[in-house]
Amino acid sequence: METKHYDLTEILLAVSGVVDMMEPALADHHRRVAYLSVELGRTMGLSNESLKKLFYSSLVHDLGAFRTSERLSLLNFEEIEPERHSICGARLLNNCSPLHELSPIVLCHHQRWDVITEDDVPLESWIIHLADRVAVALFPSEVDLDRVQAIREKLLSDAGIKFKPEVVDAFIGLAEREAFWFDLAYRMEDESLLLAESENFSSKITLEELFHVAKLFCAVVDFRSPFTATHSCGVAAISSAIAKLDGWSSSQCLEMEIAGLVHDLGKMAVPEEIIEKPDALNIKEWWIMKQHPYHSSRVLSGIKGLEKIQRAAAYHHELWTNRAYPFHVDISDVPIEAHMLAVADVFTALTESRPYRKAGDKKEVLSNLMMFCKNSVISDKVIANVGDNFTELDLIREAAQESALQEYRTLLN
């Protein structure tokens, strides 16, 4: 059987957009920094291998800023305590085997030129630092001549103090080209521009490597709040276990685990106040919450080979009678993967503890799970497998979430 491969560039481009959905002011920030960085790298004569690391690092450079307030604070040109998110991002990347070589670049991407030895910082970090600050200075304002000139003057005054002088020189030369500024203003939503930038250094990864990348982005979504810090890891473990009970192959079970890890990517567009609200959501808050499967689907649809995972994430809230959202598709269009994911999601939510409530006991959880499922059109076989194997599944869920909790605590310490 031929081994499946997935385009890492497509994956990082897609998920960088998710990370920037936190707040409208952050829209396309990672893509803008990626475009700036690669243009600077080419101007400075970097090799294709260095350009690839530069491009990928710039697409994930702010992953360690979990809270919206932290991301918004980075929109100040003069950064305030940027070290925390750089360290967290570097730790996440170091634990992700397909992306671990990006860790030192992200760790150093806010270093000042005047307070550190040059040899201690990768060149890619110096480039991302300047590109990141230019992106912050330029947007969300319009590209006008006064702003362009002000950015040039600011960079020249900070050369040798905040920024590596050679990177500033490269940028000043690049900035003479008007189309460079116009691309930044008008083409960042056009993936073809960034795909063209990266066509000479795209990478393919296996399903097993995709799993590690999915774990990374699961952490970025779930670690925004202690309320959700272990949720998707629990859903992933249960999804895979349900598939195994149904006799699926090891690769199919791994695909289901990946689906569980990424099913809530779209919650990056949901404010923390809603995610952390212990009470029932009001009608306006519920409207916002209902957007998350839509955004998960939209993002995953841009990655070739993830069609089954995309449909599972899109439709896992479509199975509840009178509460289906957001697509309202016919039940015949909902794949079995979405049935499994829906049950895994409810099972995990009922059995995990939250800061505002304790987990239910077996009798209570089974009663609630059966009640949920009676008000659904979920496959009877999936429900029966969960009911018949409750204790085993709960141990699997508990082990997965304990591991995620330890990672969360280690990351933030």
Protein architecture, described:
By secondary structure, the protein is an all-alpha fold. The chain is built from 22 helices and 2 strands.
Number of strands: 2
Question: How far is the first residue's CA from the last residue's CA?
Answer: 44 Å
What's the multimeric state? Answer: single chain
SSE run? EHHHHHHHHHHHEHHHHHHHHHHH
How big is the Rg? 22 Å
Which consecutive residue ranges, at least 5 long each, have pLDDT under 50?
Answer: none
Share of β-strand residues: under 5%
Mean pLDDT across the residues is 90
Indicate the structural class.
Answer: mainly alpha
Helix content: 55-70%
* Count of separate DSSP helical elements: 22
Strand order, biggest sheet? 1-2
| Major beta-sheet overview | 2 strands, antiparallel
Broad shape = elongated
A few lines on this structure:
The protein has 22 helices and two strands. The chain has a two-stranded antiparallel sheet with strand order 1-2.
Key features?
single chain; 413 residues; mainly alpha; elongated
Write the layout of secondary structure elements.
Layout: E1 5-7, H1 8-19, H2 29-43, H3 48-59, H4 68-73, H5 83-94, H6 103-107, H7 123-138, H8 145-158, H9 165-174, H10 178-186, H11 191-197, E2 204-206, H12 207-222, H13 231-245, H14 250-262, H15 272-275, H16 283-289, H17 292-300, H18 307-315, H19 336-351, H20 362-374, H21 380-388, H22 390-412
